[in-house]
Specification:
mainly beta; Immunoglobulin-like; HIT family, subunit A; 3 domains; 3 helices
């Protein structure tokens, strides 16, 4: 037993040891620890002073901006921390007492795939979902004496998953949502002649139409080409596209239409947010989308091999 009672947070064990962390500072105080059995009792004294914890006064992050690319299913996870833990000071106070008991927390929810470590303040992993707009997260280091914090900005961009098109972010001028004209239209920063909008997509009349009623259907979030658009957004586009095409044709007195999507600069894409053109057609119009004159001859055996190769890749 111990007398008087130990400061809050400290516990006397069955073996006479004292464990725990004091809840608050306390002045120098004497305590008596006693042990007894049938033969008698013995005691000893000790003095305990609970000093105030050293307060953290500075925090330095490894970086103030993380510009990440979204992890593809085929990519290997990143090794080591995506961002090393912060350096927190001081190492010790004027009496030589070290800074102890530091834990870390972060404001908000990190993008999927990124993991925050509360023990050292590091961020690890690789994002699996985009975060196109720079978002500020606050990392706080704290102990019983106080806390200190600093901000890190994070942006997670889609990777270019279309290696067959030999396209990179650097080859495209409108690489980010803040500079892409279609993203600006979706945010209302540039006016348009809107014909449809929901949570995922927006459609408007093309400002350089190939035909009267020429309409562009595009995603509100930046996806550089059709092959990187998530399936649920593709499904949303296809759910709207047929009805919208008919309504546009009815408005201009057309019966037929083309649905066209250019993916990659070689294919004629000039604005690198995926989009689909609805082009109403009328008898005798000047638009020619026929490729009859560009037909190439391919050996039948080669076509068989090509078809089989693609079929097997799709399994």
């Amino acid at each position: 037993m111990v007398n008087p009672a130990l400061p809050d947070g400290l516990t006397l064990g069955e073996d006479g040891s004292i464990t725990g962390t004091a809840a608050a500072p306390s002045k120098l105080q004497s305590f008596t620890i006693s042990i007894k059995n049938k033969q008698g009792e013995a005691s000893t004294g000790l003095v305990i002073e609970v000093l105030e914890a050293v307060k953290p006064t500075s925090i330095a992050l490894a970086t103030d901006f993380l510009d990440l690319k979204v992890l593809d299913e085929g990519d290997a996870p990143l090794e080591g921390p995506t961002m090393a833990g912060p350096t927190v000071g001081p190492e010790a106070d004027d009496h030589g007492r070290p800074l102890k008991g530091i834990t870390f927390k972060i404001s908000g929810d990190l993008p999927d795939g990124l993991i925050f470590n509360p023990e050292d303040g590091s961020i690890s992993g690789a994002p699996t979902t985009p975060l196109e707009e720079e978002t500020t997260f606050t990392i706080t280091a704290e102990n019983a004496a106080g806390e200190v914090s600093s901000d890190v900005k994070i942006r997670c961009r889609l990777k270019d998953l279309s290696s067959a098109h030999a396209r990179t972010y650097e080859e495209r001028n409108a690489n980010y949502a803040d500079s892409n004209i279609f993203c600006k239209i979706a945010r209302g920063e540039i006016p348009c002649r809107k014909v449809y909008e929901d949570d995922l997509i927006i459609a408007f009349l093309d400002i350089a139409p190939a035909a009267k009623g020429h309409t562009v259907v595009t995603t509100k979030q930046l996806y550089q080409s059709l092959d990187v658009v998530p399936p649920h957004i593709l499904a949303a586009i296809m759910a709207v596209l047929p009805k919208l095409a008919i309504k546009v044709c009815d408005a201009v007195g057309a019966k037929d239409y083309n649905i066209l999507s250019n993916n990659g600069s070689v294919a004629g894409q000039t604005i690198f947010n995926t989009h689909i053109h609805i082009i109403p057609r009328t008898e005798g119009d000047a638009l020619n989308l026929s490729w009859g004159g560009a037909q190439v001859e391919v050996d039948p055996e080669e076509m068989d091999k090509l078809a089989l190769a693609v079929f097997n890749e799709m399994q």
